[in-house]
Amino acid sequence: MGIPLSTFQLELQQRVNYLLPINLLKLLVSQLYFSIVKPLRYFSTLVYLLSRPHPNLSTRIKTLLHFGEGVYFSYFLRNEKIHEIHAHFLDRAAVLALVAKRLLDIPFSLSIHAGADIYVHPILLREKLVDARQAVTCTQHNKNHLETIVGHTLSKKITFIPHGLDSSAYQSRNHNHDKLIILSVGQLKMRKGFLQLVDVCKMLDNKGYDFKCEIIGEGPLRKALEERISDLSLEDKVFLHGALPHEAVLEKYQKATMFVMPCIQTDDGDVDGIPNVLLEAMAMKLPVISTKVSAIPELIDDQKNGVLVSPNEQDELFEA
Hints:
Elements: H1 7-14, H2 24-37, H3 39-51, H4 57-77, E1 85-88, H5 92-104, E2 108-112, H6 116-120, H7 125-131, E3 134-137, H8 140-150, H9 152-155, E4 158-160, E5 180-185, H10 194-206, E6 211-216, H11 222-231, E7 238-242, H12 246-255, E8 258-261, H13 276-283, E9 288-291, H14 296-299, E10 307-309, H15 314-319
Parallel strand pairs: 1-2, 2-3, 3-4, 5-6, 5-8, 6-7, 8-9, 9-10
Helix pairs in contact: 2-3, 2-4, 3-4, 4-5, 10-11
Protein backbone atom coordinates (compact mmCIF):
# COMPACT_ATOMS: atom_id res chain seq x y z
CA MET A 1 0.00 0.00 0.00
CA GLY A 2 3.04 2.25 -0.13
CA ILE A 3 3.30 2.63 3.65
CA PRO A 4 6.89 2.39 5.04
CA LEU A 5 7.51 -0.35 7.58
CA SER A 6 9.35 0.07 10.87
CA THR A 7 12.48 -1.93 11.72
CA PHE A 8 10.45 -4.03 14.16
CA GLN A 9 7.90 -4.83 11.45
CA LEU A 10 10.62 -5.83 9.00
CA GLU A 11 12.28 -8.10 11.59
CA LEU A 12 8.92 -9.66 12.41
CA GLN A 13 8.22 -10.33 8.74
CA GLN A 14 11.38 -12.42 8.53
CA ARG A 15 10.02 -14.75 11.22
CA VAL A 16 6.62 -15.19 9.60
CA ASN A 17 5.75 -18.12 7.35
CA TYR A 18 3.13 -17.36 4.71
CA LEU A 19 0.79 -20.01 3.32
CA LEU A 20 -0.03 -17.92 0.27
CA PRO A 21 0.73 -18.21 -2.55
CA ILE A 22 0.25 -21.95 -2.21
CA ASN A 23 2.81 -24.26 -3.79
CA LEU A 24 0.63 -26.62 -5.83
CA LEU A 25 3.11 -29.50 -5.62
CA LYS A 26 3.31 -29.22 -1.83
CA LEU A 27 -0.47 -28.93 -1.70
CA LEU A 28 -0.76 -32.25 -3.52
CA VAL A 29 1.94 -33.82 -1.34
CA SER A 30 0.12 -32.71 1.82
CA GLN A 31 -3.13 -34.34 0.67
CA LEU A 32 -1.35 -37.59 -0.17
CA TYR A 33 0.56 -37.55 3.11
CA PHE A 34 -2.48 -37.30 5.38
CA SER A 35 -4.67 -39.55 3.23
CA ILE A 36 -2.03 -42.28 3.63
CA VAL A 37 -0.63 -41.62 7.12
CA LYS A 38 -3.94 -40.60 8.77
CA PRO A 39 -6.64 -41.73 6.34
CA LEU A 40 -9.45 -41.96 8.91
CA ARG A 41 -8.89 -38.43 10.20
CA TYR A 42 -8.36 -37.01 6.72
CA PHE A 43 -11.50 -38.43 5.12
CA SER A 44 -13.73 -38.08 8.18
CA THR A 45 -12.84 -34.39 8.43
CA LEU A 46 -13.52 -33.91 4.72
CA VAL A 47 -16.90 -35.65 4.93
CA TYR A 48 -17.79 -33.81 8.13
CA LEU A 49 -17.16 -30.37 6.65
CA LEU A 50 -18.85 -31.00 3.31
CA SER A 51 -21.90 -32.65 4.89
CA ARG A 52 -22.66 -29.64 7.11
CA PRO A 53 -25.42 -27.25 6.00
CA HIS A 54 -24.28 -24.61 3.50
CA PRO A 55 -26.40 -21.81 2.01
CA ASN A 56 -25.44 -22.70 -1.58
CA LEU A 57 -23.08 -24.69 -3.78
CA SER A 58 -20.47 -21.95 -4.02
CA THR A 59 -19.98 -21.85 -0.24
CA ARG A 60 -19.67 -25.64 -0.18
CA ILE A 61 -16.96 -25.42 -2.83
CA LYS A 62 -15.28 -22.70 -0.77
CA THR A 63 -15.29 -25.03 2.24
CA LEU A 64 -13.67 -27.75 0.11
CA LEU A 65 -10.91 -25.34 -0.90
CA HIS A 66 -10.42 -24.24 2.70
CA PHE A 67 -10.19 -27.90 3.75
CA GLY A 68 -7.39 -28.37 1.22
CA GLU A 69 -5.62 -25.30 2.62
CA GLY A 70 -6.13 -26.64 6.15
CA VAL A 71 -4.42 -29.91 5.20
CA TYR A 72 -1.60 -27.93 3.59
CA PHE A 73 -1.33 -25.85 6.79
CA SER A 74 -1.28 -29.01 8.92
CA TYR A 75 1.50 -30.50 6.78
CA PHE A 76 3.79 -27.62 7.77
CA LEU A 77 2.82 -27.95 11.43
CA ARG A 78 3.23 -31.71 11.75
CA ASN A 79 6.80 -31.58 13.11
CA GLU A 80 6.52 -28.28 14.97
CA LYS A 81 5.98 -28.06 18.72
CA ILE A 82 2.76 -26.07 18.47
CA HIS A 83 0.63 -26.06 21.63
CA GLU A 84 -2.29 -24.01 20.34
CA ILE A 85 -3.45 -22.25 17.20
CA HIS A 86 -5.23 -18.91 17.35
CA ALA A 87 -7.42 -18.07 14.37
CA HIS A 88 -7.92 -14.35 13.96
CA PHE A 89 -11.42 -14.15 12.41
CA LEU A 90 -14.16 -16.73 12.16
CA ASP A 91 -13.93 -17.30 8.42
CA ARG A 92 -11.21 -19.05 6.43
CA ALA A 93 -8.65 -18.98 9.26
CA ALA A 94 -11.06 -20.83 11.56
CA VAL A 95 -11.54 -23.63 9.01
CA LEU A 96 -7.78 -24.08 8.72
CA ALA A 97 -7.48 -24.24 12.51
CA LEU A 98 -10.36 -26.74 12.72
CA VAL A 99 -8.72 -29.03 10.15
CA ALA A 100 -5.37 -28.85 11.96
CA LYS A 101 -7.07 -29.67 15.24
CA ARG A 102 -8.72 -32.76 13.78
CA LEU A 103 -5.61 -33.96 11.98
CA LEU A 104 -2.97 -33.16 14.61
CA ASP A 105 -4.87 -32.78 17.92
CA ILE A 106 -3.74 -29.17 18.28
CA PRO A 107 -6.40 -27.14 20.13
CA PHE A 108 -7.38 -23.77 18.75
CA SER A 109 -9.00 -20.55 19.88
CA LEU A 110 -10.78 -17.84 17.92
CA SER A 111 -11.05 -14.08 17.67
CA ILE A 112 -14.48 -13.10 16.39
CA HIS A 113 -14.96 -9.72 14.79
CA ALA A 114 -17.82 -8.14 12.88
CA GLY A 115 -18.16 -8.04 9.11
CA ALA A 116 -18.30 -10.83 6.59
CA ASP A 117 -17.38 -13.73 8.89
CA ILE A 118 -20.50 -13.52 11.07
CA TYR A 119 -22.92 -11.11 9.38
CA VAL A 120 -22.65 -11.45 5.59
CA HIS A 121 -21.81 -15.07 4.78
CA PRO A 122 -21.68 -16.97 8.08
CA ILE A 123 -20.54 -20.50 7.26
CA LEU A 124 -20.06 -23.35 9.74
CA LEU A 125 -20.30 -21.07 12.77
CA ARG A 126 -21.61 -23.81 15.04
CA GLU A 127 -19.03 -26.32 13.84
CA LYS A 128 -16.15 -23.93 14.42
CA LEU A 129 -17.31 -23.13 17.94
CA VAL A 130 -17.91 -26.80 18.76
CA ASP A 131 -14.28 -27.62 17.95
CA ALA A 132 -12.74 -24.45 19.38
CA ARG A 133 -11.38 -24.48 22.93
CA GLN A 134 -12.46 -20.90 23.48
CA ALA A 135 -13.29 -17.71 21.60
CA VAL A 136 -13.20 -13.98 22.24
CA THR A 137 -15.14 -11.19 20.61
CA CYS A 138 -14.72 -7.45 20.89
CA THR A 139 -18.37 -6.43 21.35
CA GLN A 140 -21.35 -7.58 23.38
CA HIS A 141 -23.43 -7.07 20.25
CA ASN A 142 -21.41 -9.78 18.47
CA LYS A 143 -21.81 -12.20 21.37
CA ASN A 144 -25.57 -11.63 21.52
CA HIS A 145 -25.85 -12.13 17.76
CA LEU A 146 -23.85 -15.37 17.86
CA GLU A 147 -25.95 -16.69 20.73
CA THR A 148 -29.06 -16.42 18.55
CA ILE A 149 -27.29 -18.59 15.96
CA VAL A 150 -25.41 -21.21 18.01
CA GLY A 151 -27.46 -21.24 21.20
CA HIS A 152 -26.75 -20.40 24.82
CA THR A 153 -24.58 -23.43 25.63
CA LEU A 154 -22.05 -22.89 22.85
CA SER A 155 -22.04 -19.14 23.40
CA LYS A 156 -20.55 -19.79 26.87
CA LYS A 157 -17.28 -20.44 25.05
CA ILE A 158 -17.28 -16.82 23.87
CA THR A 159 -15.76 -14.17 26.11
CA PHE A 160 -16.42 -10.49 25.50
CA ILE A 161 -13.15 -8.52 25.64
CA PRO A 162 -13.36 -4.97 24.27
CA HIS A 163 -10.50 -3.56 22.24
CA GLY A 164 -8.05 -1.43 24.14
CA LEU A 165 -5.97 1.49 23.01
CA ASP A 166 -2.57 2.81 24.09
CA SER A 167 -3.75 6.31 24.91
CA SER A 168 -0.16 7.53 25.35
CA ALA A 169 0.27 7.25 21.58
CA TYR A 170 -2.55 9.71 20.98
CA GLN A 171 -1.61 13.14 22.27
CA SER A 172 -4.21 15.81 21.66
CA ARG A 173 -3.27 19.26 20.43
CA ASN A 174 -5.37 22.36 19.97
CA HIS A 175 -7.79 21.42 17.23
CA ASN A 176 -8.68 23.69 14.34
CA HIS A 177 -11.40 26.21 15.12
CA ASP A 178 -10.83 28.68 12.27
CA LYS A 179 -12.21 26.38 9.60
CA LEU A 180 -14.42 23.33 9.97
CA ILE A 181 -12.29 20.27 9.16
CA ILE A 182 -14.27 17.03 9.11
CA LEU A 183 -12.13 13.89 9.32
CA SER A 184 -13.10 10.29 8.61
CA VAL A 185 -10.82 7.26 8.46
CA GLY A 186 -11.47 3.70 7.29
CA GLN A 187 -11.54 1.26 4.42
CA LEU A 188 -13.45 2.66 1.49
CA LYS A 189 -16.32 0.21 1.82
CA MET A 190 -20.06 0.71 1.73
CA ARG A 191 -20.54 -0.12 5.42
CA LYS A 192 -18.47 2.91 6.48
CA GLY A 193 -21.12 5.34 5.18
CA PHE A 194 -18.72 7.51 3.19
CA LEU A 195 -21.23 8.08 0.38
CA GLN A 196 -23.69 9.40 2.94
CA LEU A 197 -20.97 11.64 4.37
CA VAL A 198 -20.29 13.13 0.92
CA ASP A 199 -24.01 13.81 0.49
CA VAL A 200 -24.07 15.67 3.81
CA CYS A 201 -21.04 17.67 2.70
CA LYS A 202 -23.13 18.87 -0.25
CA MET A 203 -25.82 19.97 2.19
CA LEU A 204 -23.19 21.91 4.17
CA ASP A 205 -21.91 23.48 0.97
CA ASN A 206 -25.41 24.52 -0.07
CA LYS A 207 -25.82 26.26 3.30
CA GLY A 208 -22.64 28.24 2.76
CA TYR A 209 -20.45 26.58 5.40
CA ASP A 210 -16.69 27.01 5.04
CA PHE A 211 -15.37 23.49 5.57
CA LYS A 212 -13.08 20.76 4.37
CA CYS A 213 -13.78 17.01 4.60
CA GLU A 214 -10.80 14.65 4.59
CA ILE A 215 -11.27 10.91 4.11
CA ILE A 216 -8.31 8.63 4.77
CA GLY A 217 -8.31 5.04 3.56
CA GLU A 218 -8.36 2.87 0.48
CA GLY A 219 -10.79 0.32 -0.85
CA PRO A 220 -13.27 -0.78 -3.52
CA LEU A 221 -15.56 2.23 -3.04
CA ARG A 222 -12.96 4.75 -4.23
CA LYS A 223 -14.28 5.09 -7.79
CA ALA A 224 -17.87 5.54 -6.61
CA LEU A 225 -16.72 8.17 -4.12
CA GLU A 226 -14.71 10.02 -6.75
CA GLU A 227 -17.73 10.05 -9.05
CA ARG A 228 -20.05 11.25 -6.27
CA ILE A 229 -17.63 14.04 -5.32
CA SER A 230 -17.38 15.10 -8.97
CA ASP A 231 -21.14 14.92 -9.59
CA LEU A 232 -21.77 17.15 -6.56
CA SER A 233 -18.95 19.57 -7.52
CA LEU A 234 -17.18 19.03 -4.21
CA GLU A 235 -13.63 18.64 -5.52
CA ASP A 236 -12.51 21.67 -3.49
CA LYS A 237 -14.29 20.47 -0.33
CA VAL A 238 -13.93 16.69 -0.05
CA PHE A 239 -10.52 15.04 -0.36
CA LEU A 240 -9.66 11.33 -0.64
CA HIS A 241 -6.13 10.85 0.71
CA GLY A 242 -5.87 7.09 0.27
CA ALA A 243 -3.99 4.98 2.82
CA LEU A 244 -1.53 6.97 4.94
CA PRO A 245 1.19 5.99 7.46
CA HIS A 246 0.05 6.03 11.07
CA GLU A 247 2.08 9.14 11.85
CA ALA A 248 0.36 11.03 9.05
CA VAL A 249 -3.06 9.91 10.30
CA LEU A 250 -2.18 11.24 13.77
CA GLU A 251 -1.35 14.61 12.23
CA LYS A 252 -4.75 14.67 10.54
CA TYR A 253 -6.42 13.92 13.88
CA GLN A 254 -4.55 16.81 15.47
CA LYS A 255 -5.65 19.28 12.79
CA ALA A 256 -9.29 18.17 12.56
CA THR A 257 -12.27 19.91 14.11
CA MET A 258 -14.43 16.80 14.40
CA PHE A 259 -14.47 13.12 13.50
CA VAL A 260 -17.42 11.61 11.63
CA MET A 261 -17.99 7.88 11.03
CA PRO A 262 -21.56 7.40 9.66
CA CYS A 263 -21.56 3.58 9.58
CA ILE A 264 -24.45 1.66 8.04
CA GLN A 265 -25.48 -1.97 7.66
CA THR A 266 -25.52 -2.88 3.99
CA ASP A 267 -28.23 -4.87 2.23
CA ASP A 268 -26.14 -8.05 2.45
CA GLY A 269 -25.63 -7.58 6.20
CA ASP A 270 -22.09 -6.23 6.19
CA VAL A 271 -21.55 -4.03 9.24
CA ASP A 272 -18.78 -2.79 11.52
CA GLY A 273 -18.56 -3.67 15.20
CA ILE A 274 -16.81 -0.75 16.86
CA PRO A 275 -14.41 0.90 14.41
CA ASN A 276 -11.06 1.38 16.17
CA VAL A 277 -10.77 4.82 14.59
CA LEU A 278 -13.58 5.99 16.86
CA LEU A 279 -11.47 5.09 19.90
CA GLU A 280 -8.49 6.87 18.35
CA ALA A 281 -10.48 10.03 17.64
CA MET A 282 -11.89 10.06 21.17
CA ALA A 283 -8.40 9.56 22.60
CA MET A 284 -7.38 12.64 20.61
CA LYS A 285 -10.26 14.49 22.31
CA LEU A 286 -12.04 15.10 19.02
CA PRO A 287 -15.83 15.50 19.01
CA VAL A 288 -17.18 12.33 17.37
CA ILE A 289 -20.35 11.68 15.42
CA SER A 290 -21.40 8.17 14.44
CA THR A 291 -24.53 6.06 14.06
CA LYS A 292 -26.79 3.83 16.15
CA VAL A 293 -25.68 0.69 14.38
CA SER A 294 -24.18 -2.57 15.61
CA ALA A 295 -22.02 -2.11 18.73
CA ILE A 296 -21.17 1.57 18.32
CA PRO A 297 -23.60 2.55 21.14
CA GLU A 298 -21.44 0.41 23.46
CA LEU A 299 -18.69 2.99 22.98
CA ILE A 300 -20.57 6.24 22.41
CA ASP A 301 -23.21 7.33 24.93
CA ASP A 302 -25.29 9.74 22.86
CA GLN A 303 -24.94 13.39 23.92
CA LYS A 304 -22.45 12.45 26.66
CA ASN A 305 -19.19 11.45 24.99
CA GLY A 306 -20.31 11.87 21.39
CA VAL A 307 -23.33 12.11 19.12
CA LEU A 308 -25.22 9.22 17.56
CA VAL A 309 -27.64 9.53 14.66
CA SER A 310 -29.76 7.00 12.79
CA PRO A 311 -27.92 5.24 9.94
CA ASN A 312 -28.72 6.38 6.40
CA GLU A 313 -30.37 9.55 7.70
CA GLN A 314 -28.50 12.40 6.06
CA ASP A 315 -30.76 15.06 7.59
CA GLU A 316 -29.94 13.83 11.11
CA LEU A 317 -26.25 13.73 10.28
CA PHE A 318 -26.40 17.26 8.89
CA GLU A 319 -28.10 18.58 12.01
CA ALA A 320 -25.54 16.86 14.26
